[in-house]
Batch of 4 targets.
Target 1
Amino acid sequence: LRSQLQEAYTNLSALRVNMEQYYQDNRRYSSTTGGGTCGIPGGNVPTVQNLKYFTYSCASAGNTATGDQTFTVTATGTGPTANFVLDINESNVKTTQNTGSGWNLPAANCWITRKDGSC
């Protein structure tokens, strides 16, 4: 299970980099066309390769005259990783929102790596 969690760590980190690149080009996290969030026209589902244990979604907020200035990308576990919910935001704050059975939530903002709640 610990190795399956690695999928979320890798993809969330990559999606955060993609969001920052989008922000550099557009000075906003929301799409400039189609009303989408997180730079995704018409939606909020980021493109991720090799999905196996998680699904991904994105929400942008902080709407100003120049567009959304914050985002959160979330990985939600499926199959053996069901109930795990991890996310990352524009400030690179990594959080574990929920864990699987027998796993403790971490005390700090981080992505869980062990059953005892350590990061």
Target 2
Amino acid sequence: SGHVKPGVCDALVCQVDMLASFAALTGRALAESDGPDSFNILPTLLGAKTDPFGREYLVTQSNEPATVALRKGSWKYVKKAPRAGRKVGGELYNLANDIGEVRNLADIEPALLAEMAAKLAQIKNDGRSRP
């Protein structure tokens, strides 16, 4: 006891990360096929100042309606079909100041929108988010 100090952290983590984190805690290595989306966030859970951010990206999916999204820090990209005349479709929100996802910043941040859309496509193509 006494290893983890009470506090609050804004790190991006997910319950799927518990597999890789508990494996690291117990000194076990994950097989290549185990936990393809699980990242070791043990340093974050233990409050390490060297890793206060957790994972870099997180893919989420809701079923009603079927929507796939990508989180990167406070940013959230929601995959949508492109509008006429646009190469990249989707919505982009900064959850740091818009937790209700009211202000779509896709037109204001087109480079970030394209980056996050490309990352989501790469993860889908790879079939996993963990390298």
Target 3
Amino acid sequence: MKTFNTETTPKKIDVSLIRKDFPIFTRQDGQPLIFLDSGASSQKPQCVLDAMDIYYSTMHANVHRGVYHIAEQATFLYEESRVKIGKFIGAPEPEREIIFTKNATESINLITNSLSRGYLKAGDVVVLSEMEHHANLVPWLMLKDQIGIELRYIKVDDNGYLVLDTLQEILKDAKILSITLMSNVLGTINHQIAYMTDLAHKEGALVVADGAQYVPHYKIDVAKLGIDFLAFTGHKMLGPTGIGVLWARSSLLETMPAFLGGGDMIADVRLDGFTTNEIPYKFEAGTPPIAEAIGLAAAVDYLDNLGMENIRLHELELLEYAFDRLEKKFGKDLVIHGPKKIQDRGGILSFELKKIHPHDISQILDQTGVCVRAGHHCAKPLMRNLGVTATARASFYIYNDKRDIDALVEALEQADKFFA
């Protein structure tokens, strides 16, 4: 069974040096900021802020339109960013296959809207899983209402893994398999994505991968995985908000109808019709997120310099330490959802502490500077499967270390005593 490609000889990263690159950690609130919510949105290093500021300060102009110097500079940086981001995920043709959106949600909506105009029709089967984020669920539910597609779901077992025993049967006659690479609730990494893709392609189905949680943390090569679409977002990978990415095979983009209409996505417009621009511009109507793309490219440079294999090693160490400390301190009073094997999960811990409401936990932790998320994490069907309405969630990234885990444990101990 094929799995994700991993790299060798990872090296430790120096968190004390990394934190100096992030201005937010210089905040003076009487206590240090312990940010454990990168699964929702990561912090930004100074180089990302600088890259956007330089664009706005020295060369702001619209792209693909002006022939004057700063407009050409802006266009060059914007297109250079496209190629850099494409190479980061192993895109075979980064200059043609990377489409900028405002987030991963819009990327998936672009796919569903475009494929609903010709490729998908009433009765066609789309396969999802029960662990999907709403961004990879609601757009397909909308198509179910609009054109009558059939939705099938891959179940999640009690340990947080996809149940793949009957996958071949579930995929029978399917047109789409749309699956997350990593659960934003369980932390589950779906290592079997290449295997799932092989089965889906044998049925003639296209494969959509939601990489919003995976791409910021782990090395990915879309060509080796064999997937057809990948959606991810900038703000979870040190980049700015307002920038998402859709990668798709150029052969698919050539045949897919445009998603939005307006300027820049056209080759010609007449009163009786129009012709679309070449890809990727066919899918980028209007003024694009120029500064945000440049900022995301700077974030990609930062991650590349650290090494994705080193980031993975760091997060595995944090996970192992967190599991050990939490188990020793709270035992069975604290339940962590998802796989127990840290190799099968990312740096996310969704947990319950006794019967304390997750929102109460989050508020108590905030009083000590510890930031965690509480809620349904945009995954209500999965919450129902877990038998809860919400969880507290701590998520780690490159600027976290074992001291942050210690702070989390101590804050949870205070919450436990407060509600005893």
Target 4
Amino acid sequence: MKHDIDLIIFDCDGVVIDSEIISANVLIDELFPYGINIDIDYVQQHFLGCNFQSVKQKIKSNLQVQLPDSFEARYHQVLLTAFETQLTTTEGFKAFLASLTIPFCIATSSSKKRTDKALDIVGLTDFFNKNNIFTADEVENGKPAPDLFLHAAKQMQVNKQHCLVIEDSFFGGSAAKNANMSVVHYVGGKHLPDGTNIVSSVFSDVPVLDNWRKFSELVPAVVTINNSFTLNKSNDN
């Protein structure tokens, strides 16, 4: 892992917020009335890290089902309702974020509206705002294309060689690789309960992180460790 890192680019879902397990369950339930019976493993393999339009296209090509135009709005409505009562940050993330000594941002396949709402629910709006949140709507090609990460680096005025991307999905990890950025595969979300190593099974040089406290072992120069950096779940979610 390089140590000359000047910017950390976080994926949002499954990295900043522990949302992927919620999103997967809602999607599975909402697809069932259309004759689509899939499980979480299928969602992880085919949809993790993709924006909704990519998911819709994959459903059409892989499952031969054309979802109606109304499906997306219904899905997001149900999902945001579930977020209100179930959504948290990934464990220890707020303390980790407060320990960082360099700039950071979010680059996500989710919409701006959904991302803003989710960050508000988990209490991260003091850390993330319009100046350091970037979504797939802002670029021509979503992950695994490098466009979004390159866009984020440009807006944050940091050379891509000095960016570190933290991703949970293969498509996101591939996007970071395609952008020629360093990447860490985060496997601490509830949707990866066994620490499933999706990214580094393909990219052998990608470090795996299952706990935010261990980040300082990978890039010690960008983290200030103090007594407040603890995994106190009651204070962190």
